[in-house]
Write a structure and sequence with these properties.
The protein is of the alpha+beta class. The chain is built from 5 helices and 4 strands. It has a 4-stranded mixed beta sheet, with helices on both faces.
C-alpha cells in the first residue's frame, strides 16, 4: 500500500519507510548479537530500540502452492533491530540454531534491562487510593436536606446537583461493567 498525496506523489513518510527498509543490513547471528550489545550498551540518557521477530516464509523466490502437507515444515525466524533513525540490521535464524540463539539473545536482553527506568510505585499507590475514594463516595447516598427557600437554599441546590451527578456516574459505571462482561463472554 502506498500513501500518496492528491497529485499521486508518495508522501515523505512513505519514502522514509521505504528507504529505511532498503537500508536494513542483513548480518549473521553472531554479528547481530555483537551489534545489538553495542547498541544497548551505548551511553544514552534516552532512546528507543525496536525489536521485531517474524516467521520468515518468503525466501526471495516465487511462491509455489504444494498439495502436500505443510503443517510440519519449519521456517527460519527473522529478527530485526532498529533505533528508528540510523541503525537498522537484521538476521535470519535457522530452526536448528533457534534455541541457542534465543538463550544468548535472552541473556543479552536481561542484562540490558538494568538501564530501564523503575516504576513510580508511590504515584500508582496514590492513584489507586484516589480511585478507591471515588468509588466509596459513589456508593454513599447524597442526603438532600434544608429549606427550598430562604437560608440554605443554595446548599440544597448544590446537593441536588451532586445527587444527579452521582446517579449519572453510577449509570455510566453500570454500562461500562456490562460492556466488559459482554466482551469477556464473546472472547
Amino acid at each position: 500500500m502506498m500513501i500518496s498525496r492528491r497529485d499521486g506523489e508518495p508522501t515523505r513518510a512513505y519514502e522514509e519507510c521505504r528507504l529505511s527498509l532498503s537500508l536494513m543490513q542483513l548480518v549473521d547471528n553472531n554479528t547481530f548479537l555483537k551489534k545489538l550489545t553495542e547498541l544497548l550498551d551505548a551511553p544514552k540518557d534516552k532512546g528507543t530500540v525496536w525489536l521485531t521477530h517474524k516467521r520468515l516464509t518468503h525466501d526471495g523466490e516465487d511462491a509455489v502452492m504444494d498439495e502436500g502437507d505443510q503443517s510440519n515444515k519449519e521456517y527460519p525466524c527473522l529478527v530485526r533491530v532498529t533505533d528508528g533513525k540510523k541503525i537498522h540490521f537484521s538476521t535470519h535464524v535457522q530452526p536448528a540454531d533457534l534455541m541457542k540463539f534465543h538463550a544468548t539473545y535472552g541473556s543479552l536482553l536481561k542484562a540490558s534491562f538494568t538501564t530501564l527506568r523503575k516504576r513510580d510505585k508511590k504515584r500508582e499507590k496514590l492513584r489507586a487510593e484516589q480511585v478507591a475514594r471515588r468509588k466509596q463516595r459513589m456508593g454513599e447516598p447524597v442526603v438532600i436536606s434544608g429549606p427550598k427557600r430562604g437560608n440554605g437554599r443554595r446548599k440544597r441546590q448544590r446537593r441536588i446537583k451532586a445527587a444527579l451527578k452521582q446517579e449519572a456516574a453510577k449509570e455510566r459505571a453500570a454500562k461500562k461493567e456490562e460492556a466488559k462482561t459482554k466482551a469477556q463472554l464473546v472472547a
